[in-house]
Structures are given as structure tokens and as C-alpha cells.
Amino acid sequence: MMNLPNVLRRDPGKRMTDTNLLTTITIAVFLVMYIASILILGEGFRKPQQMLNLISTNAYLIILSCGMSLVMITGGIDISVGGVTALVAMCCAVYLDQGGGNVFVSMLIAVGIGLAFGVVQGYLIAYLNVQPFIVTLAGMFFARGMTTIVHTNPFNVENESFVALKDFRIVLPLLGSYTRKGKYIPATIEIGVIVALLIVIVLFCVLKWTKLGRNFYAVGGNKQSALMLGINVKRTTFASYVICGLLAGIGGYVYFMHVGSGSPSHAMGAEMNAIAASIIGGTMLTGGVGNIIGTLFGVLSLELIKNIVASVGLDQAWWTGITIAAMLCIFLVVQSVIIARRKKANASAAAEKVPKGGVT
Amino acid sequence: MQNNKMAGIWQQISRNQILIPIAALLLLALFNLIADPSFFRITLKDNANGDPVLSGQLISIIDSGSELAILAIGMTLVTAASGGQDISVGAAIAISGSVLLRVLCGSDSRSEEMQAPIIVAFVIACIVSMLFGAFNGALVAYFKIQPMVATLILFTAGRSVAAWINNNELPIVKDPSFSYYGNYIPGIPIPAPFLIAIVCFVVTWLVLKFTTLGLYVQSVGINEKTSRLNGLNPELIKLLTYVLLGLCVAVAALIKVSRISTINYSVIAKDIEMDAILAVALGGNALSGGKFNMAASVLGAYVIQFLTTTLYKFEVNAAALPAYKAVVVILLVVMSAPTVREKLSALVKKINGGASAEKT
């Protein structure tokens, strides 16, 4: 309680930071959409299981988006995550099906692949100053191609211990529902959700309270001034890509646990979904602005709107694409307008504060 | 003295941008020459219509690399002016092609005759495509959204919109005169797409030579603020480059659709945006904007096609192709990275210095 007054004193009347503002907007939009869908569409949306299913299916996307947000906060981009997801799923599937079949080793393989991608891409980007877009584009190509080289056809994994892991569900108390006949159906989530939420919490704490986290924001905000502040810009950039690669590996395994098969066409376009989710969550590609909690809600909003479109009856395939694009468009324009206005306000406020006689 | 002069010439050559695609081209050609000299054989054959046409691997390269070359023209301008890339060109080709077929076939997707002259359909497709270009351009120029993110909107929606325009039907144009643009014009043994690409390139070259467009685009790309102070309108110029890319997209769409006389919304021009960006990068153009070399980009596009055809010839699985492409790209990018270049030139100097020291 002692430092509460301090916190209050530090920013009396100070407005929210860009990051917090954008996150608040995202969370508000998500809640409005969810409540509206419960009130208007009713039916399935009223059951918590609908939401839990949505989270279970997209646990991997949450993990990928966390990595993506981190890289975007640092001012870069990583479009290889979708490819890495497919590669991880395929390699693990082949290993479990043909190799020894130890589930723990397959986890190690997943993490190893992700780390390898992260280290190589991070080195090229941070230390050789190659454009992140080109490097990770090549990474994506490589991962997709390798997936086909490892195995051409999609197939299901029948390893016993893995199937047990895949079908394991965590039962949540109190959230279950009754069918019309009065039978109780417990609410369940997959293991991936726990992993995803853990990662969200850990990353949130790292970004908020550690030196490394602050360095990410500093490097993304302005490389030059970060360098002058004595931050090791190269190492920080490198770290962001390594973490993103690692998360892509973990995300790939979570995806693998969800689908239980390997296929070259897995996670197609996941990188674009992850970027879209990060943007909706308030991360800006210019760097320096972003929040992991926002990203979480970005993923949820993105998937919720897909569900809403499907249940409204616009079931032709093209409506999903068009709605997501429209949503992305609105968010981008709103963000850009807000940031521009705040910049102007900040500039005029700064001009007022400086006394006319110059620095005193 | 001799050595210094030689080093000077060497430096001048190595500084020249177009060297990168030429070197890549020579390397590939040499590889093919050693592996299988029949790669370069060109024969005169009769095609299905009984017209004599040239055929051979080289001809197929200049044939199927043409859409990419046309896109590379527009992509170079966009990259130079806005320091970012348009990732929606593939989706925009789908839209443009869809419009083209919609106008040609009218409401009946299996009509025997064309409902409108090709030129009318093409002009309408151009206008639509340029409007979408203007939409991207407006987001980038006036709303200050990063190009990759702004074009992500059209990337997500494009193929859905394309399917929507034709009500998800796949119209087929039965008139043979429509297929000339993607195959062969009777009496001319050179593939028509290559001729169209040459026309596009010459027109662009003339425009850049006799107007100030090229200069303005470069100055906006190098420094937006100073170009504004010099009386340019950076927003308008950025918008203009996106509209021009729209025009390129429409031409590429005409070729793509004409090749098969129909369209497949989810497959047409898939991943072409990645190849187009690669072409620009291969041409040695900085992806962060500024100076550009149009000829190098166009050559880069054909180099990519050369690589693709070479790999196909060695019976590489089409889905595994990206992995090999990625390795080549990474090698090229690492070679042209500023840090590596500095080290290499230092090495060359050292060798030269050592040689001259030995002589004296």
C-alpha cells in the first residue's frame, strides 16, 4: 500500500498510453460483439462451451500471435510461423508414426525446430541487417517445402500415448450445461489452452516488468535512441526472433495436439491470421506499441466474428474473408486516426510546456 | 597502379545493381549447361492450332515468367515510393480476372459468344483493378498505414470478392481469339505474354525516361519530408504508384485468365505476391524504398522463373519447390547484405594488397 500514492502521484491526469488505449478498444469491441451475439443470436452462444471450443481450436493461433506481437513490437515481422507450424506437425507425426514414438521426444523435436528457425532468422536479421520480411519469407518457403519433402501425403497419427494426450480434456467445474433431457454435459478444454494462457501470462509479465521487455519496446519505438540509451539493439532484436521461433515451435505442437495429423496443407495462412490478430489487438507494425493481452483478445475477436458470420446465415465461403477484411480495415483506420490525433495533441502540449525563453 | 585501377573497376561493377540478377542468371545457365545442354535447345514446332511456334525450356521461361515481370514493374515503383510491398497482387489478379470474365460472359457462364469486345472488358478490368490499387494507396498514403498491413486487407478479402463477383461460378470463354493473349498470336512464333511484357517494359521505360515520375518516386522514397519541402506531394505520388501497380495487375490478370480461358479463384496467381517481391529484391532494389532499377527487377523476375523451370526439369515436386527457392534466396540475400559485402570487399582488397606487395 505504501507505493500506491506514489503511483497516483506519478501520473495525475495523465492520459492512457497508446498501447493501453488500443488494447482497451479491442477488449471493448470483443465484449460488445460477444454480448450482442448472446443477446441477438442466443442459442449456441449462450453456452460457455461454444466459447471454450473456440479457444481450444485456436490455442495455437494465440501462441503464434503472441510471438508475432513480440516481433512486431520490436519493429519486425515474422511470416514463417505458419510454415513452421506445418513443419513441426509433420515432423512430429512422422516421428511418432515411424520412429521411436516417445511423446516427450516429439515435444523436444517441436521446440528444437522452432528454436532453429528463430536462431537462424534472428541472426540474419539482427546481425547481418537483412530485411525481416525477406528472411522470414524465405523461412516460410523453406518450411513449407520441407514439410512436403519430409512426407508428401496427409496422415493420422495412431501412436497410443499420443492419442491419449490428444484426447485428454480438462473439465471445468460450474460451466457445464444441461441438455433438454436434463443430462449434464461438462465443459471441457484442451491442454493447449492451458499452454496458451500460460504463455500469454508469462509474456505479459516479461513485457511489463522486466528489463528485456522494456528493451523490446525501446528498440521498436526508436532504434537510434535505444542505441544511445545503451541498449544492445542487435541482441534484443535477435532475442525477439528467437522467442518468436520458440513460440512457433510450441504453437506447432499445440496445433498438432489439436489435429493429430501431419499434412503439407496444415495451418495455411496462419501467419496472416496471426498478423491480423496482432493488429486487431492493438500492436502496430511500426513497432513500440502493443500488448499481449490485446493480442489474446485480437485472436478471440477474429474467431468470434467468423462464428457470428457463419451463424447469421451468410454461409457462402466468401463472406468470412470479406468480414475479416472489413474488420481489419476498420481497426486499421481507427488506429491510424487515433494515433495521428494523439500525436498532434502531444505536439501542441509539448509546445505549450516549453517556455518561450528556451530551456531554463 | 594497375592493381588499383583493376580494384576501381571491380568496385564499380560490383556496385552496379543489375549485376546481382545477371550473376544469378549466369550461374543458373552455367549449372544447366553442365547438367544438361539440351536445356537450351529451341525448336520450331506446330501447336494444336497448326501454327508454327518456338518451343523449348528457354521459351517456356520467357513465356511463363511474363506475368511476374509485369508485376515486378509495378512492385518496384510501389517499393521505391512507399518503402513497403503490396502483398495483395495475387488476390487483385483474381478480382481483375473475375471482372474480365464477368464482362465477357455476361450473366450466362457458358455462353458460346462473347457478350462484349475484349478491349471493353479489359478496360473495365483495368479500372476496377486501379480502383483497388487506389484503395490500397489511400490507406498507405493518407492513413499512414504500413503498406504490408494495409494490403493485408485486400489479401484477405480479394479471393472472396473475386468469387462473389461471379457468384462462385467458373465462366468459360469459348472464343478462340481470347486465348491469344496467354498463348500464341497466330503467325507469331514468340509467346504473346512475352510480347506483352516487352511492351509494358518499353512503355514504362519511356515514361520514366521522359517524365519526372521516376525522379519523384525516388525522392519520396528516400526522404518524404525533404521532397515535401521541395514542393512535391508525397501522398499523391505514393497513391499514383499503387494505381500503376493496379494497372500492371490488370495486364497480368488478362494473361493469366487468357491462358486457360477460365478462372479458379483460390488457385489463380497463388503466391505470386511473394515471387514479385522476390523479383524486386533479386534486382538489388532496397526493400525499404528509395533508388530503384526497373530493368534489374524485370530481369529478377525472369531469373526466378528460370530457377523454377530448372527445378521442375530436375523433377522436383511442385510443393517442395519453395524449399529450394528459399535456399537460393537466403544465399543471395546474405551475399548482398551490407555487412557481408563490406567484409568481402575488405577481403578482395587484402588479396589485391597482398598481390601488389608480393610484386614489389
Biggest sheet strand order of chain B reads 1-2
What is the class of chain A in the CATH system?
Mainly Alpha
In the predicted model, the low-confidence regions of chain B spanning at least 5 consecutive residues are none
Mean pLDDT of chain B: 84
Q: Number of helix segments of chain B? A: 15
Q: DSSP helix count of chain A?
A: 15
Described by its quaternary structure, the protein is heterodimer
How many strands appear in the DSSP assignment of chain A? 4
Question: How are helices and strands ordered from N to C of chain A?
Answer: HHHHHHHEHEEHHHHEHHH
**Silhouette of chain A:** globular
Q: How does the major sheet of chain A shape up? A: 2 strands, antiparallel
CATH architecture verdict of chain A: Orthogonal Bundle
Write the CATH fold name of the largest domain in chain B. Answer: ABC transporter involved in vitamin B12 uptake, BtuC
Instruction: Calculate the terminal CA-CA distance of chain A, rounded to whole Å.
Output: 36 Å
Radius of gyration of chain B, in angstroms, nearest whole number: 22 Å
Helix content of chain A: over 70%
